[in-house]
């Protein structure tokens, strides 16, 4: 049995003629934390990196200099002072174009033997859940993506949405589940499309962002769920690679799962503070500085799912006016969002301003501003992976450094980066 990650390989597409990868998958962190640059580094190094498709139009505007968000805001400007957002819809042509361009741009820069995948969430309702999901799925395939990971939902109709796409069987397709029951439901729907998943990501309760558990998340263990999924597949005589995720912090953690039958591992938290990740410097330093007691699971997300984040997140207790006209990614089919209800219920101050909204946050706005510090449970260990500067901040790490540490480390060791050169101030000569 191997004792480093590099002793193993992930094979997707069957043992005969399948593609081979270093068994490290970087998760799809939104909004734009898992950037194309981060995914491309994973692919260059032989692993798999994800792009997140959360808030596609906003991400396209940021990276490709498009103006989709501004155009949407202008189109629905007459609703900005109205809490009825039922008329606020996405232009499906714009959404398709943004998704396809993001993927095409990334794929045009790809080098190496690894893969660039995209994480696509079912519960990103966008005021028209089925229509917008279908557009995002097909836009990614048409852009040439290597693989699609279906997340945040059961995806009982997702495969049928792309079965007519010419790349339906060319791109890898996987599903994220948090229980054997969820997997059973997805596999029943997959059989109707005659397309089993190429891999299964089993996400445990220590993962970052929105969780696939209730308030009792702390009663579950990734190790147990992983084994339950493996045993279920064995009982059904299904040979599908299983990839555990959530709380895998060292290469040795990864090897322990690989020895137990995992095909690969999915990791994310340590890459949030990489140079290639899309978080702001302020957010990355907040992650480095976090203590364990700063990590909380809250109900502030308007999606209704528990959200793991830092209690120091600037989004908490704010009073942002709903930003559905430019964004609106959490609106349901009736134009409703839990933040709209919370904002309406809050009292008004003496000067006419809304007081702080404690129960919910305007998720779209705060994600667009890097104000929502979503994180994995082990984020407080990030300070042990880098070096502290003289000013108390921490050195950022390259994705390559983190990837290779996972790939080659032993005995739960973590390789620290080289010390940055001291900046020498030279006095001006007159």
Concise description?
The chain has helices spanning 36-44, 56-64, 68-75, 92-108, 129-142, 158-162, 180-192, 222-235, 251-259, 281-289, 338-345, 363-368, 399-408; strands at 10-12, 19-21, 24-26, 48-52, 115-121, 147-151, 172-177, 199-203, 209-210, 242-245, 265-267, 295-298, 307-310. By secondary structure, it is an alpha/beta fold.
Give the helix/strand layout.
Elements: E1 10-12, E2 19-21, E3 24-26, H1 36-44, E4 48-52, H2 56-64, H3 68-75, H4 92-108, E5 115-121, H5 129-142, E6 147-151, H6 158-162, E7 172-177, H7 180-192, E8 199-203, E9 209-210, H8 222-235, E10 242-245, H9 251-259, E11 265-267, H10 281-289, E12 295-298, E13 307-310, H11 338-345, H12 363-368, H13 399-408
Parallel strand pairs: 3-4, 3-11, 4-5, 5-6, 6-7, 7-8, 8-10
Antiparallel strand pairs: 1-2, 9-13, 12-13
Helix pairs in contact: 2-4, 4-5
């Amino acid at each position: 049995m191997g004792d480093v990650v590099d002793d193993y390989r992930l094979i997707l597409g069957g043992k005969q003629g399948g593609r081979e990868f270093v068994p490290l998958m970087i998760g799809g962190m939104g909004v734009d934390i898992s950037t194309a640059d981060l995914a491309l580094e994973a692919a260059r190094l032989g692993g798999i990196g994800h792009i997140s498709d959360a808030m596609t139009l906003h991400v396209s505007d940021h990276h490709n200099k498009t103006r989709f968000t501004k155009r949407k805001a202008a189109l629905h400007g007459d609703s900005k002072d109205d809490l009825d957002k039922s008329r606020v819809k996405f232009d499906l042509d714009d959404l398709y174009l943004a998704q396809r361009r993001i993927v095409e741009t990334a794929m045009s820069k790809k080098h190496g033997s690894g893969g660039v995948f995209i994480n696509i969430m079912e519960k990103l309702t966008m005021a028209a859940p089925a229509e917008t999901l279908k557009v995002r799925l097909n836009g990614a395939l048409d852009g040439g993506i290597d693989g699609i990971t279906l997340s945040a939902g059961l995806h009982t109709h997702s495969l049928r949405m792309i079965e007519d796409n010419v790349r339906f069987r060319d791109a890898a397709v996987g599903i994220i589940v948090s229980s054997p029951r969820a997997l059973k439901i997805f596999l029943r729907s997959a059989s109707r499309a005659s397309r089993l998943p190429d891999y299964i990501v089993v996400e445990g309760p220590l993962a970052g962002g929105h969780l696939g558990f209730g308030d009792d998340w702390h009663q579950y263990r990734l190790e147990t769920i992983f084994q339950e999924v493996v045993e279920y597949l064995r009982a059904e005589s299904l040979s599908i690679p299983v990839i555990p995720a959530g709380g895998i912090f060292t290469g040795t953690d990864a090897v322990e799962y690989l020895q137990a039958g995992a095909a690969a591992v999915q990791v994310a938290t340590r890459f949030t503070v990489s140079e290639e990740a899309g978080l702001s410097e302020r957010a990355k330093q907040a992650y480095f500085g976090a203590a364990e007691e700063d990590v909380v699971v809250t109900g502030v997300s308007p999606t209704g799912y528990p959200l793991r984040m830092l209690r120091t997140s600037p989004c908490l207790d704010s009073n942002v006016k709903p930003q559905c006209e430019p964004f609106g990614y959490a609106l349901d089919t009736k134009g409703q969002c839990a933040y709209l209800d919370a904002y309406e219920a809050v009292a008004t101050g003496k000067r006419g301003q809304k007081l702080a909204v404690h129960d919910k946050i305007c998720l779209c706005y705060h994600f667009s501003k890097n104000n929502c510090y979503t994180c994995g449970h082990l984020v407080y260990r990030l300070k042990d992976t880098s070096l502290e500067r003289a000013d108390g901040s921490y050195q950022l790490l390259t994705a390559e450094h983190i990837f290779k540490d996972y790939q080659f480390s032993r005995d739960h060791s973590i390789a620290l980066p080289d010390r940055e050169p001291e900046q020498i101030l030279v006095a001006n000569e007159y």
